[in-house]
Design a protein that fits this description.
It is found in: Endoplasmic reticulum membrane; Membrane. Its EC number is 2.1.1.100. InterPro entries: ICMT_MeTrfase, PPMT_MeTrfase. There is one protein chain. With about 250 residues, this protein is mainly alpha-helical. The protein contains 10 helices and no strands. Helix 4 packs antiparallel against helix 8 and helix 7 packs antiparallel against helix 8. The radius of gyration is 19 Å and the shape is globular. The N terminus is likely disordered.
Length: about 250
């Protein structure tokens, strides 16, 4: 079977479950958000890097908040998703490195507001769609694909889910790519687009196959009148888990 679960499953350690660890992490994130806001108001030349920092940190605060509210039994430091994979950390390293190298040589090109302001708007919309979808689905959404059914698991097919089959993925896909437009990182725009698309091209068909196993015809009918919204990711209706595993 392919690795369709880059985010999990994860069994948090006792250290990660400690309340003080989670509180301190939240405080540190809040302090950095405040620092970036202060730098913006001070008029630094790298405003868009500060905006990226705020977008990045707010994303992780909201991911933690979702787990704390909707899955309190499993909340831990790992719920921030700050260190969920080596690929994630490597992507962040590349983004920051590219920005500062190019900023050193082309400072005027790296801070063009006609690029990063529209990108910021798209990021905010993408983040909003993801967060609203997650909180609306409540415990029916999970960072980890659920391969077995549970009595409390319901198929959410109204509100934003009436149109988008995976609104949280839709929002994150565009948020991820346009954070690199905020940084005006031409190389990472391409890398993030490829990495994000590849991730969902594997994950979505597999997740839909597991959902079809759980909900059967109900999910097949749901698929027929909703869309994914991520280019070139095709769904087979009804999905076949065995075919994907092969």
């Amino acid at each position: 079977m392919k690795n369709y679960l880059p985010i999990g499953p994860h069994n948090p350690t006792e250290f990660e479950k400690r309340i003080d660890v989670m509180v301190i992490t939240g405080v540190i994130i809040g302090l950095f958000i405040g620092l970036f806001i202060g730098l913006i108001y001070s008029g630094v030349g790298f405003i868009n890097f500060c905006i990226f920092g705020i977008l990045f940190l707010v994303f992780h605060i909201l991911e933690f908040s979702y787990v704390a509210v909707c899955h309190p039994e499993s909340v831990s430091f790992s719920s921030f998703l700050l260190t969920h994979s080596n690929e994630f950390l490597l992507a962040l390293f590349f983004a920051v490195t590219e920005y500062w190298i190019e900023y050193f040589f082309f400072p005027n090109l790296k801070t063009c507001p006609y690029i990063y302001i529209p990108a910021l708007i798209i990021c905010v919309i993408g983040q909003g769609i993801r967060s609203v979808a997650m909180f609306y689905a409540a415990s029916n959404f999970n960072h980890v694909i659920e391969t077995s059914s549970r009595d409390s698991h319901k198929l959410v097919d109204d509100f934003i889910y009436k149109y988008l089959r995976h609104p949280s993925y839709f929002g994150w896909f565009y948020w991820s790519i346009f954070t690199q437009f905020v940084l005006i990182n031409p190389i990472c725009i391409l890398l993030y687009a490829w990495a994000s698309w590849s991730f969902f091209a594997d994950r979505i068909p597999y997740e839909e196959a597991t959902l079809y196993q759980q909900f059967g015809k109900q999910y097949s009918e749901y698929m027929s009148h909703t869309f994914i919204g991520i280019p070139f990711i095709n769904s087979v209706n009804p999905p076949n888990l065995k075919t994907l595993d092969d």
